[in-house]
């Protein structure tokens, strides 16, 4: 299996989304671990491409799935960039729209019923091509994006308003593995070393409002 994204739902439990060899494309694959990667179990995966306008949700650990139409189809958007779980039945979805000179129109939608219905919330800054969204809790969310520089956008009121929490004038080295382990603690890699960049680890203890670099 080739991994595309990973989501930890506890200290030991995680899901990995990717692709695996199959006879008939698309070849989406989902695996789950309950012991922090010591063992994995394959789960039923929807027969849809990894890119597209389906939001796929599960409420039983991946044994069954439900697909809902993405609100990203209602505007001139590329396929949705990323989705974050903000509550037991809550989701936040980042849609990427028209691009221009290192910027893209970004729109965030939230759902309180696992994607059955969506509400348009705030509009993050346009600087940065695409982005990844993560949530510490229902009110605090962060978007990581990059183009000529790298930015972390932060919302403290459920995605209604956004502000720039971090600006790195790095030529667009970007981010990796943005995520939260508790309702306030989060991590992100600035300039992943695997891409030949600075490889800095940043931590937050206040839901993404402020970040500090960790020295090894």
Structure description:
This protein folds into two domains: 50 residues, no CATH class; 145 residues, YVTN repeat-like/Quinoprotein amine dehydrogenase (Methylamine Dehydrogenase, Chain H). It is 0% helix and 46% strand. The chain contains no helices and 18 strands. The strands form five sheets. A four-stranded antiparallel β-sheet has the order 1-2-3-4, with no helix packed on it. A four-stranded antiparallel β-sheet has the order 7-8-9-10, with no helix packed on it. It has a four-stranded antiparallel β-sheet with strand order 11-12-13-14, with no helix packed on it. Strand 17 and strand 18 form a beta hairpin. The protein starts with a strand and ends with a strand.
In spatial order, strands of the major sheet run 1-2-3-4
In percent, how helical is the residue content?
under 10%
Mean pLDDT across every amino acid position: 85
Task: Give the tally of structural domains.
Answer: 2
Predict the CATH topology of the largest domain. Answer: Methylamine Dehydrogenase, Chain H
CATH class of the largest domain: Mainly Beta
Percent of residues in beta strands: over 45%
Globular, elongated, flat, extended or rod-shaped: what is the shape?
Answer: globular
How many DSSP helices? 0
CATH architecture of the largest domain: 7 Propeller
The ordered H/E elements are EEEEEEEEEEEEEEEEEE
**Structural class estimated from helices and strands:** mainly beta
Uncertain regions spanning at least 5 consecutive residues: none
Question: What is the assigned CATH homologous superfamily of the largest domain?
Answer: YVTN repeat-like/Quinoprotein amine dehydrogenase
């Amino acid at each position: 299996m080739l991994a595309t994204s990973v989501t930890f739902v506890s200290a030991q439990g995680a899901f990995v989304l990717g692709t695996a060899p199959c006879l008939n494309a698309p070849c989406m694959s989902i695996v789950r671990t309950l012991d922090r990667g010591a063992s994995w179990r394959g789960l039923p995966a929807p027969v849809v491409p990894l890119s597209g306008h389906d939001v796929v949700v599960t409420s039983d650990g991946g044994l069954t799935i439900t697909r809902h139409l993405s609100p990203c189809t209602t505007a001139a958007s590329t396929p949705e960039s990323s989705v974050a779980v903000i509550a037991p039945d809550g989701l936040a979805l980042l849609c990427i729209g028209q691009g221009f000179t290192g910027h893209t129109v970004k729109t965030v939608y939230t759902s309180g019923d696992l994607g059955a219905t969506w509400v348009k919330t705030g509009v993050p800054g346009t600087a940065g091509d695409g982005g990844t969204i993560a949530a510490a809790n229902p009110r605090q969310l962060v978007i990581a994006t990059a183009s000529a520089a790298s930015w972390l956008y932060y919302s403290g009121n459920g995605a209604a308003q956004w502000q720039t929490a971090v600006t790195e004038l790095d030529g667009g080295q970007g981010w990796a593995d943005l995520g939260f382990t508790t309702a306030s603690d989060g991590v992100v890699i600035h300039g992943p070393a695997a891409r030949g960049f600075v490889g800095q680890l940043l931590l937050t203890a206040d839901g993404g409002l402020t970040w500090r670099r960790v020295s090894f």
